Structure formats: structure tokens, C-alpha cells
Amino acid sequence: MNTTRKVKVAIVGLGNIGANTHIKYVKQLDNVELVGVCDLVKEKADKFAAEFHTTAYYDYIELFDQSGIDAVIIAVPHYDHTPITIEAFKRGIHVLCEKPLAVHVNDAQKSIDAYEEAKQDFPELIFGMMFQERTLPFYKKLKEIVSGGDLGQLTRVTWINTAWFRSQSYYDSGGWRATWAGEGGGILTNQCPHNLDLYQWLFGVPARISGHANIGKYHNIEVEDEVTAYFEHDNGMIGHFIVTTAESPGTNRFEIVGEHGKLVYENEKLVLYKNRISMLKHLRETKDGFTNVESWYTEIPVNTQVPTGHKVVAEKFFAAVLNGGGELIADGAEGIKGLTIGNGIMLSSFNKKMIDVPFDADEYEHKLMELIKTSKFIKTVQEDVKNDFSQSFSQA
């Protein structure tokens, strides 16, 4: 690695994640120089610029054109991810984007297209997504086992992830939260982009989706706070995805079933029920109508004493920038895959029928724009709410 040159980076968006996470690890990296921070709120930009001895900007175009940055970390509200990534790529600026890549598939594709076009002039341009949950030890072990084929033909995946409890005061803490115009959705857009990414990382994007989303079932919001989805994959595997922000105590249970056994991840423990023979072979050939396949209980060892989180993703990103390429935790173009699942769930729910993937992205975008245009929701904002967002990150 080039140890003399430093990546000149700026952070756009100084909300909770930008100010409390990104700016802090950036200052810890030896190969990075923070040359600017940017926020529409002048007082906020000035405050962090003074605290971290850098330059304040109030408009990202001015930042891009005046700061001389090599790379930008984008941590603004969801809808703004698209125009900011596009403008960065036009200037050959490397991008590390917070989740989600966009609110809807059409906007995500615009960012990807802009990146591919920009690479014609800047072939070493790097585009990364902040999918830090891919660095978590239990999920990495699931990836290793599934990708290694240990389970053989996969038949069912069930992920119950209801450990996303949010109070009404959380939703009332910001004017943009849990609105179609401000956030573009609820739990699938805000809390679950990581889960949707992990699902596609492990199993790919489903071929068919049946989604059931409840809008403001438990909270006074206009977006979804409870979702149950059913997936079908072309290889015959089915999937279930169950999430809510209104369950306490919540559950995070991941079952992955294949012909050679079943993996269960729950409560910081990963268990493999290893079949002695293929269950598919057994069910076809046995003369006994009721006998299960003999299976062996094995607790899979997982090394949890490893670096994880946002900093690990950023280190890979900056190394790739300095080296003119390299492996990322998550490539930017991958951001469209989990988003496709989330949009598909909502489109299926709106239409009350199973949909094929790929679906009509224009139809989903038009539906979203209609929801924004016809919204009569009155947003109540509480300024005195205390939110410790470190508690919202998975520790798996």
C-alpha cells in the first residue's frame, strides 16, 4: 500500500450517523485527511469543522468544486443519496455511501449508471456501500458455510428479525422520519436495508415476492412498521422475512435449511444440525414413513474477537482508493439488490398479489410519488427526544 499519500475525504451530512460515527473513525485513520464537512445547517457544519480542525461547507456542489477532495462519505437523508453520488462521479470523486443506496430502484440505477459512465474517464474510481453488518462474525460465518455448499441444496430460509423496537418518540424526533416524502418508507427503508442486503448476499434476489406490509399499525406514522414477506427462488428455495419496530422483547432468529442439515443463529449462538445423509435422498428412498434423518447437534465456533463495523468498511474503501482498486466489503452496485427486495415487498403489498422479479420499477416509483402527493399526514416533532443511535447497530 502507498503509505505516504493520504486520501483527502469529506463527509456530507452531519446527522447522527455522520457526526457520531463517520467523523470519529475518519480521524483515527492514518491514511486519511478530513478536508471538509458539509451540512445544510450552517451552525452544525461550523461546529464540527471547528471541533475537528477542518473546513465547513453548506452546499455539496461547493464542497466538490472547491475542497480538492479525493473521496466523499455520503450520510444524508435517503432521497439525497442519488443526486450527490451522481455529482461526485461526474468529478471523479470516490464515493462511500450510507445505506440505502436510494429509496427506489430507478434512483439506484441512476447512481450505478453514473458510476459506470464516469469510469470511462476515471477508470480507478471506487464506489462502496456502507454495509457494515457484513463484517459481523456470525453473519460472516453464515456466508462461509452457505457459500461452501455444506448444506447442499437449500430448501428454506426463515429470518425473524423483530429486534428493531422503536417508540413513538423516536419517530417524532425528526420531521423527515417515517414519512413518504422525507424517508421514502418505514422499517424496510430505515432499519432493514442491512438485513435485506445480507439476505441477497447469502441467497441472491428472489424470483418472486409476496409482501404484506402494515402501515402505521402500532405507531402514528404513514409508513410501514410491520412486514411479513414470502420469497420464492428459482432453485426451489423459499424464504420468509418477518420484521417490525413494535415488538419487545424482540427476536433475531435465522434458520437456513438444506438437504444436509439446518443452521440456526440466535442469541449469539450458531448451531448446525448436521444430517447423516441427505434428507432429499432419505425421503425418496426410505421404506419407513415416519423416521427422520439422523442428525448431529454441533455448535459452530465463531471468533467474535475481530474488528467489525463502519471503520472496517471504510478501511477497505480507502485502501482501494490508494491502490487504484481492491476488494471492498460491499461494492456500490450491490446496493440495488437489497433495495429490489424491499421495493418488491412493498409493491406486492400495495397490489395485494405476488410479483415477479424484476418488476416494473416505474410502477413502484409512480406509487411512491402518488403517496407523497396525496399525503395528509400531519407530522408531530419533539425536539427533546434522546436517541442513542449506537444501540441501533447490530452486534452479531
Describe the structure.
With 396 residues, the chain is an alpha/beta fold. The protein has two domains: 7-132 and 310-331, Rossmann fold; 137-302 and 338-390, 2-Layer Sandwich (Dihydrodipicolinate Reductase, domain 2), CATH 3.30.360. 33% of the residues lie in helices and 21% in strands. The protein contains twelve helices and 15 strands. It has helices at 16-26, 42-51, 60-66, 81-90, 105-118, 137-147, 168-171, 193-203, 279-285, 310-323, 335-351, 361-374; strands at residues 7-12, 32-38, 56-57, 71-74, 94-97, 127-129, 154-161, 208-215, 224-232, 238-244, 252-258, 261-266, 269-275, 295-299, 355-356. The strands form two sheets. The protein has a nine-stranded mixed beta sheet. Strands 3-2-1-4-5-6 form a six-stranded parallel beta sheet, sandwiched between helices. Strand 12 (261-266) and strand 13 form a beta hairpin. The longest helix has 17 residues, at 335-351. The protein is globular, with a radius of gyration of 22 Å.
